[in-house]
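In this supplementary section we document a worked example of the pipeline. Step one takes a protein sequence of length 85 as its only input; no multiple sequence alignment statistics are reported here. Step two produces a three-dimensional model, which step three serialises into structure tokens for compact storage. The input and output of this example are shown verbatim.
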Amino acid sequence: MEEWRIKITFVLLRNLAHKNVIGENIKELCHQIGWSQERLALELNVRRQTVNNWERNVSSPDITMLRKLKVIFRCSHDDLIDERN
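The serialised model returned by step three reads:
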């Protein structure tokens, strides 16, 4: 039973770390292509506040949005969810 709790805790912590990284990466990738939050929101058919929440790590894009972001930024899944050097 304890091993199960440790695994769940690890997964939750890993997901939380990725949540913070995703927001930072979205912000940086938008900057690289010269897009504002408004432009990204328009392309994704979401509110600007949604993009703002992603960038501030209040929320994270779902898998459908991650796929769309990969196309827009012409990047890999890893480019969105991993720490950038």
